[in-house]
Design goal:
192 residues, two-stranded parallel sheet, 8 strands, 23% strand
Length: 192
């Protein structure tokens, strides 16, 4: 969703964009992640259209990345008027405590009996999902809740790179009603 937002902003409004993502570059014996190629293609298309687009590749949860982003904004863009927070990760290392938090996609409160599909085998089966523990729920909030988003906004504001009246938005997942017990009413919903 972050790259989609950049595409709309860049090509729909000729907005300069800076993206932060953690993608795998190609190695001697492996191709890069799909996101790495998508970022590269977007930057090339933006350049051809005369639109500024740059991607920083690294740990978006880190203070070092926030500092790097602020410096790039200061040097290349001056200030920005929109921050789209679209970070999705199963794990977050807290930048101040060093604690590693792992998120869980689970129901809250009671066991959930639900169907699942094994795509490769074409099989549908029933599974019982145990509810998240308090620790699993707290860790999911630590990964996907608003603390990191707040850290980003505060860091950019403190660096003086947010324009007056700048706006920010974040994406979340509501999904279909059939999944609400594990998303909207589950650990993800608690985080959001």
């Amino acid at each position: 969703y972050g790259l989609a937002s950049r595409i709309v902003a860049g090509f729909g409004y000729q907005a300069n964009t800076l993206g932060i993502s953690f993608e795998k570059a190609p190695a001697e014996n492996k191709t890069a992640s799909a996101g790495w190629y998508n970022n590269l293609a977007f930057e090339a298309a933006a350049k051809a259209a005369g639109v500024y687009a740059r991607t920083l590749d690294g740990a978006a949860f880190s203070d070092a990345m926030r500092d790097q982003a602020a410096e790039v904004i200061r040097q290349d863009m001056g200030q920005i008027d929109l921050v789209v927070y679209s970070l999705a990760s199963p794990v977050r290392q807290h930048p101040h405590t060093g604690e590693l938090h792992r998120s869980s996609i689970k129901p809250l409160g009671e066991v959930l009996d639900i169907k699942t599909v094994h795509v490769e085998k074409g099989e549908v089966s029933e599974v019982s999902l145990e509810p998240a523990t308090q620790e699993e729920s707290a860790n999911t909030v630590a990964v996907m809740g608003g603390e990191d988003w707040q850290m980003w906004i505060e860091a950019l504001a403190d660096a003086g790179v947010l324009a007056e009246g700048a706006k920010t938005t974040a994406y979340t997942y509501i999904g279909e009603k059939i999944t609400w017990d594990i998303y909207w009413h589950g650990t993800i919903g608690a985080a959001k």
